[in-house]
Design goal:
alpha/beta, binds 5-O-phosphono-beta-D-ribofuranosylamine, Rossmann fold
Length: about 200
């Protein structure tokens, strides 16, 4: 039987992509990573994908904006780029571009996002920093991370999996970031494999 196909979208370091690639290598995720797309040329995740022998595509929004083209046009073209790879699951792993319904409707129930905060908390960028600051103000006792199905609203949508991440009184922001990323790597791998075997 053919293995399910994964397409992974990134914008940065790609440590979560690496966790997925390592899990595929180890057999913890039974799937084929078919394509990695980055909207940033210098994203180190592209190097990680190439090293693992996974096809890559660089697909930036900037030229669209420069040409006065809409986000919807970008999203439609991104969907066309991905469609031939026939993904069973599209994973947004540090992908810094809000996808509209134009994209999401092309892949219903197939797009998941990883966010370094618990459901309903700290949507958007700098979520770890904002949780850290909220902890210092005594507003929260812990934070967490989640994998959720993607909807047009940013960092929201039906939750696939979540994990609590403790914050310690002695933590620096860097300490919390390290703990968060470790938790994210585990959660993402588990969530992807769970969805693929459902
Ligand atoms: C992760 O914290 C992810 O949740 C957030 O961006 C970060 C990406 O890290 N949206 P990496 O590129 O996977 O290392």
């Amino acid at each position: 039987m053919a293995l399910p196909r994964l397409v992974i979208l990134i914008s940065g370091s790609g440590s979560n992509l690496q966790a997925v690639l390592d899990a595929v290598e180890a057999g913890t995720i039974t799937a084929v990573p078919s394509l990695v797309v980055s909207n940033r040329k210098k994203a180190y995740g592209l190097v990680r994908a190439e090293t693992a022998g996974v096809p890559t595509a660089y697909f930036p929004f900037k030229p669209y904006r420069g040409a006065g083209k809409s986000r919807e046009q970008y999203d439609a073209d991104l969907a066309e780029l991905i469609r031939p790879y026939q993904p069973d699951l599209i994973v947004l792993a540090g992908w810094m571009h809000i996808l509209s319904a134009t994209f999401l409707n092309c892949f219903p129930h197939k797009v998941i996002n990883l966010h370094p905060a618990l459901p309903g908390q700290f949507a958007g960028t700098h979520a770890i920093q904002r949780a850290y600051d909220a902890y210092q103000r005594g507003e929260i006792a812990h934070t967490g991370c989640m994998v959720h199905f993607t909807i047009p609203e940013v960092d929201a949508g039906p939750v696939v999996a979540q994990a609590e991440v403790p914050i310690l009184p002695t933590d620096s922001l860097a300490d919390l970031e390290t703990r968060m990323h470790q938790a994210e790597h585990q959660l993402l791998v588990t969530a992807v494999q769970d969805l693929l075997t459902k």
